[in-house]
Amino acid sequence: MTLHVEYDDSPNEMHGTEFVLHGVTDSDMEKSKSLFLKFAGEETLETNAYGQILRRKENIGRVYILGVLASEEPNFLFSYNITSLTDFMKKRLNRERLNVGRTTYSDRVKSILKSAKSKVVEDMLIEQIEKRAKGDQCDEMAWIEISQMALNLMHQRDSVVYFTEQDIQSYPNILDNARRDGYKVVIITEQQKSKLEAQIGTGGPEVRTREVYVREYNASFKYKFVDIQRLTQEERHIYECTPKILALVGLTLDRVPPIRISETMRITDDNTEGVWDPSIHAIVIKRSSLSSLVCYAATLLHEVGHAMTGAVDGTREFERVLTDYLGQTSKAAISNGVWWKRWLSGSP
Fold this sequence. Notes:
This protein is α/β, with parallel strands linked by helices and 348 residues long. The protein has 3 domains: 26-104, no CATH class; 119-219, no CATH class; 228-345, Metalloproteases ("zincins"), catalytic domain (Zincin-like, 2-Layer Sandwich), CATH 3.30.2010.10. The protein has helices spanning 26-34, 37-40, 87-92, 102-114, 119-129, 144-157, 165-170, 172-180, 190-201, 210-219, 233-239, 242-247, 293-309, 316-335, 337-345; strands spanning 44-48, 51-55, 61-65, 68-73, 78-82, 160-163, 184-187, 259-262, 274-277, 282-286. A hairpin with a 2-residue loop joins strand 3 and strand 4 (68-73).
């Protein structure tokens, strides 16, 4: 693999250099040529100040340094040709470019990727984000700078919300809201989330983490409160059942937050009928819920459960709250046969 040369420095008038190679087979020549980018037949996807991004072929990535093969990377997404060397690289490289470890060139490969602007490269990086769940991400995504870059690109291209595994376990209600709002939920690591938060904190681009989505979600609530005196007779009849509904679970009006009726709820169109809003310390119920005693009572008790316990939707804690309310309601209804019959008939 190494070419040894005998050099005669006696004067001659020949221009250029003449090479005479003995015992070289065609196979040897092909192997030798494959060590050089010029003869390897690589497809260049992008060129920038640090080098070139090449399309990986034959299921293996290759790293060239100044056009000479330095290493093969079985799990790289791309192949690379590094054309701008750091001082560290110059010190680490030997004459034959053999046994060059990843630590020698990783920083330059990161620089090449971070400078990438072509759509084909960006698309391939974005595709890698969703492969995390399958466990077959490329090695470049293990570099936090590159995964952060890919997450930013995905956020620019698509409506996504980034959740960690802990977010999913702790805030299933927020996860459901995001999906109902048409967002794609993408699972990221805690380290990736910390990097994105640091980016936002230093004035960089804001990407939609769980916390950002919650802020946007809360900002999407817009109320148009209705004076109780302006309700229709039928609506007033149902609304005035509030003390009786609360009594079913052992509560009174003075023990729960104010209950307000609004014509509108969220700016976005969904089926939200009620909400416990700590920012105004009130339970807000959409006016349309007053069309049915069953609908109003269900919405009221649901939001009272949130307000009184702080439990969120989709958690075991909130399930326990609702189960307790069901038990208390059943007991109260059975204990009062007249009220029970009227309740079942849907009559106020």
